[in-house]
Design goal:
Blueprint lengths: L17 E8 L5 H11 L3 E2 L9 E6 L2 E6 L10 E6 L3 H11 L9 E5 L2 E5 L5 E5 L9 E10 L3 H12 L3 E4 L2 E5 L5 E7 L9 E6 L3 H9 L3 E6 L2 E8 L6 E10 L35
Parallel strand pairs: 1-4, 5-8, 9-12, 13-16
Antiparallel strand pairs: 1-13, 2-3, 3-4, 5-9, 6-7, 7-8, 10-11, 11-12, 14-15, 15-16
Length: 287
């Protein structure tokens, strides 16, 4: 019996060279306030296993993290918005409301618009909480959206396509780069771009040496961290070498010892008054 074969668009499964947008690093002056915000307000989980001492905390959000070093001198403010997939926005809103009094005197605020909650952190970092749209990411960092100078989106898209090997699309002043399963790096043009203060992102790549060779040849590597990691700061137009946007990238290989390390995520709504036996760990709900 002859049947017509099913036709699939296989291209939608492609993720390119970046396999994971793994963490965002932001310096803050007070780790107590940071813990109140990330754990109690957003409902994330302080990493229980790797202890860096009193000057650095990691917070888990699904398979991604925030790395928060203490800096007495300054607070980093990412130039854009971090998009978090968080389930049950009624519970998220309730946590934000409960925590608000503990963040008085900071920049903390939030506003709900249907299934989206816009949150400003204690030092002015912006977050957008969205409902999960895929079972591949029931909890996690779905996107980092960055504000870039007007006219740079086409060159940024070309940089990620040619140098990093990541699929990227650009239209009307907006560039979207595939940065893992269900993850994107998004660049949005603006006439007003704040000064860069040193925050960084970390990505895992399958082709580790290819981008390194190009970046090294063009003297863009700023740190040869170790065998499994290097860093670069500038996104440039590959055809003209014009600097387009500064953002430190911590680039890791698949041989990095932290690759695929299981991250513990708690159920943020487990509380003593409403304690449920067996309900301590985060457990995805159907999307």
């Amino acid at each position: 019996m002859n049947t017509k074969p099913t036709t699939f668009d296989r291209s939608v499964e492609d993720i390119g060279n970046i396999s994971l947008l793994e963490h965002v690093n932001i310096r803050v002056p007070d780790l107590g306030v940071a813990t109140t915000f990330f754990v109690h307000a957003l409902g994330l989980t302080r990493d229980p296993y790797i202890d860096h001492g009193p000057d650095l905390v990691w917070f888990n959000v699904g398979r991604q993290q925030f790395h928060i070093p203490r800096s007495a001198e300054r607070a980093d403010v990412l130039r854009g918005t971090i998009v978090l997939a968080l389930p049950d926005h009624d519970a998220v809103e309730a946590r934000l409301q409960r925590t608000a009094a503990h963040l008085t005197g900071t920049h903390f605020s939030f506003e709900r618009h249907g299934n989206t909650i816009e949150v400003t952190g204690p030092w002015g970092n912006r977050f957008r909480c969205v409902e999960p749209t895929t079972p591949r990411m029931p909890l996690g960092m779905a996107s980092v959206e960055l504000t870039v100078p007007t006219g740079t989106a086409p060159g940024i898209a070309e940089f990620y396509r040619l140098v990093i090997g990541a699929p990227a699309t650009e239209t009307r002043g907006r560039c979207a780069v595939v940065a893992g399963v269900g993850q994107t790096l998004t660049f949005v043009e603006s006439d007003e771009v704040p000064d860069y203060d040193g925050h960084h992102i970390a990505i895992y790549v399958a082709d580790f040496s290819g981008p390194h060779a190009w970046l090294s040849d063009h003297e863009l590597i700023v740190e040869e961290s170790d065998q499994h990691q290097y860093r670069f700061n500038w996104i440039v137009d590959p055809s003209t070498m014009e600097p387009l946007f500064e953002l430190e990238h911590e680039v890791r290989s698949h041989h990095h010892p932290l690759r695929s390390r299981p991250l513990i995520n708690k159920n943020p709504d487990q509380r003593v008054p409403t304690y449920v036996v067996g309900g301590d760990a985060f457990w995805p709900t159907p999307v």
